[in-house]
Structure formats: structure tokens, C-alpha cells
């Protein structure tokens, strides 16, 4: 692996501990203004000091993140579908490699829909993106998106993750499931987990801890952080699990301790109309 690729990967997965805390704020690319991400800047800015990297689209990067900040960017480059459109799996590559370079992306992210109507299209997208990324030594994160009809079990997720790795993805994102270690074993590149729908904080922290205990390199978490009433506190607790080996109970202890301190700084982010769409 060449210097540029290694350097970029080290920004996403920290070489000191092999772990990764990525903040996902890309949801609007097919869901529109989700609850508490209606004004992206308000949700993103207070969390930047605590995340290792930020996953988002170019539109939100350009409009809502200060170019002078040094946060590594995981640029979502797949999409062109919406929650009310024909088929969510019909994604294409939406951002060119030149644009990703101009935006100084440290990693490219693209969804694959294994088992869906447009499986072939999304897997071809991944293979092409890996070729493009490798020309310029930019790694690719494959997001194993799960259609409504697919089970989130080790057999299905294991298949999707392995296919992503075989096509050259450098990191794979999936969901935590029972027998997660089987998914990890079958995937020769680092696996990170999505948080999924908002859970009560102790459950979300347990999910993160279980995933790491069973072999995940970290998390790419969104809703369980910025939909919390205490997003800064929540990301600090997740950080303790990812980088400080805290267990779920210790992390929840940190959450409870920090909660009161963080409250005032977070109110501003919530003065907006709520429009909830879940996926
Ligand atoms: C959407 C994504 C999201 O980034 C991913 O689902 C992570 O966010 P959350 O923790 O809210 O599930 O890739 O396709």
C-alpha cells in the first residue's frame, strides 16, 4: 500500500489503537431534513471536537462545515434516490473523483444493496469507485445498506461485507447482529458499525461496546448521537468506548456525569421544526 493511501486510512482508523469514531451526518442524501439534522451546521459544529472523522455529502460539506477546520472528511459519493422515489437501491455515483480531491476527502463512501433489484449496479459502482480511488490513493468505505426485505443477520450481512471486501473496499460499514464475529471473520478489511435508529442512550452504548468486543474497528454513528437530547455527552461516552476501552456501564456513567455540564450548549441545535423520517 502506498504512502497516500496509508496516510488517509490512518486519519480514519487511528493506528495507535486500530479504532475509528466516525460521525455520520449524510442521512439527508435520501431522507431530507431528518429530526435534529434539519440545520446540519447546528448539529455538526458542537460535535467536531470529539469525532475522528465526518461522513457527509459534498452539499452539506460546502454549506455547513468551515473549510478551515481540519476534520478528515469521509465523502458520500453515492445516491440520486429518495425515500419517496422508485427504489432506494437504484444508486449511482454522484460525485466525481476530481471533486472529491478538490474537497480534500480522506475517504469515499458508497452504498451497496446486496440482494436488491439494483444489486449489480451498486456493486459495479463500488468496483469503479475503488479503481478511481486507488488511482489517487483515496480509500473507499462500502456501506452495506439493507433493504426492507433483507434480514440483518450474520448470514446476510456476512455475505454483503465479504462481497464489498472482494470488490476492493478498504473499510466496510455494516450493522451489529448476533454472531457478529462471523461477519468480522469473513471480512478481511476493517468493519465499522452504523448505530441505526435512535435508542435509549444505555442501549446505544451497549451496541457500540458489543460491536467492538466482537471485532468491529469502531463506529460510524449518527442518529444515536445527534438525536440524543445530549449529543455532546453522548459522543464523549461513545469515544470512551471506542478509544478508551470503557465498557457500556462505564460509558453510561460518563454520560450521566457529563450530562448537566453539556446541556446549555446543545439547546440551540434543537430550535427547529421536527420532521421525522426513519430508515
Ligand atoms: C445512511 C448511512 C448512515 O451514515 C448510517 O446509517 C449511519 O448512521 P446511523 O448511526 O444513524 O444509522 O450510511 O445510509
What do these coordinates show?
The strands form two sheets. This protein has an eight-stranded parallel barrel, surrounded by six helices. A two-stranded antiparallel ribbon has the order 4-5. The chain has a single domain (3-228), classed as TIM Barrel (Alpha-Beta Barrel), CATH 3.20.20. The chain has helices at 3-12, 28-31, 40-44, 58-64, 97-102, 119-135, 154-166, 180-185, 201-213, 223-226, 231-244, 248-266; strands at 20-24, 53-56, 73-76, 78-79, 92-93, 107-112, 140-144, 171-174, 191-194, 218-221. It has twelve helices and ten strands. The chain is globular. The model is unreliable at 268-279 (pLDDT under 50). The chain has 279 residues and is an alpha/beta fold. Helix 9 runs parallel beside helix 11 (231-244), helix 9 (201-213) packs across helix 12 (248-266) and helix 11 (231-244) runs antiparallel to helix 12. The termini are far apart. It binds ribulose-5-phosphate. Residues 24, 26-27, 55, 111, 143, 145, 194-196, 220-224 line the site of ribulose-5-phosphate (5RP). Ribulose-5-phosphate is lined by residues 24, 26-27, 55, 111, 143, 145, 194-196, 220-224.
